[in-house]
Specification:
single chain, 8 strands, Rossmann fold, 8-stranded mixed β-sheet, 13 helices
Length: 291
């Protein structure tokens, strides 16, 4: 299916159906490119021009974007988690749902030759795309400090207490078992380690006409958690110092880009409302207790 094909307005009921739909949608983006599956921006992906513009509007610098291997930025971001995390030399960083390697390749120079960045993604096509860009990254930076592993974010292929920082960009909202994702984050973090996530959250429940649409799930909206419940997810996993920072500029950028998914959402919302009344990007930071 096309990642956001509007003919798929059906409810997804089981966790496995959710994973299969997400995997299929993002495989299409990796193989055919966002424009080939009818996307122009946002979590689902974008054209090279719109992807760079969206990235700039949510906090990436022009220098960062120029330094990326070709094709690594597919417009799948809703924030800049590596910047939020203030990465330091020598740290081990884990990126959940690393896609084409966008944030992994940006984090690598920040942690330097003594550090390491591990990307995990459940879509083989995305993994192949990211691994295919490692040679260009090595040539440009002189660093050999990034890797990509196949796996689900609910069951991370990473050892206990082995990571200083967990980052993720517009991915946790796609999981059908978000409490398990946050338990996994707590498991792999070292004591005193930190998490910096950019995600999509709901300000209020979506109208019933939208909540079950496959295209909205893969577009990072239908699977999102209510903002007022998000903190509890993180605390229940055993993390502390949780901070949520809503970022409405992401939804504003989608509105300005004439994104087709945004247009379909707008057409189905109650009169007098916009997507920004229901959905926001949010930066989430937290720490694992040091004891």
């Amino acid at each position: 299916m096309g990642c956001c094909n509007s003919s798929h307005n059906v409810a997804i009921k089981t966790a496995q159906e959710v994973r299969d739909a997400v995997r299929e949608g993002y495989a299409a983006v990796a193989e055919a490119g966002p424009t080939a599956v009818g996307l122009s921006g946002g979590c689902c992906g974008g054209t090279p021009a719109s992807a760079d513009e969206l990235a700039r509007r949510i906090g990436y610098s022009a220098d960062e974007l120029r330094a990326l291997p070709q094709g690594a930025n597919m417009g799948l971001s809703c924030g800049n988690p590596a910047a939020i995390a203030s990465l330091r030399a020598g740290e081990v960083v884990l990126d959940l749902g690393s896609g084409g390697g966008f944030d992994v390749f940006l984090a690598g120079p920040k942690v330097g030759p003594a550090g390491r960045v591990i990307g995990v993604d459940m879509t083989p096509q995305m993994l192949a795309k990211a691994r295919g860009n490692i040679a260009a990254y090595r040539k440009a930076t002189g660093l050999d400090n990034v890797e990509f592993r196949l796996g689900e974010i609910e069951h991370l292929p990473v050892a206990d207490a082995s990571v200083n920082v967990v980052i993720s960009n517009c991915v946790i909202n796609l999981s059908p078992d978000k409490p398990q994702v946050w338990r996994e984050i707590a498991r792999v973090l070292r004591p005193g380690g930190r998490v910096a996530v950019s995600d999509i959250a709901l300000l209020r429940p979506l109208p019933e006409s939208l909540a079950g649409m496959v295209e909205l799930l893969i577009g990072c909206i239908a699977g999102a958690e209510l903002l007022d419940r998000y903190e509890r997810l993180v605390l229940d996993a055993g993390l502390e110092a949780v901070r949520l920072s809503p970022k409405p500029q992401y939804i504003a950028a989608l509105a300005d880009s004439n994104d087709p998914l945004y247009g379909r959402i707008l057409a189905m919302l109650p009169a007098g409302t916009t997507a920004a009344d229901f959905v926001t990007s949010v930066d989430v930071t937290a720490m694992k207790p040091a004891g």
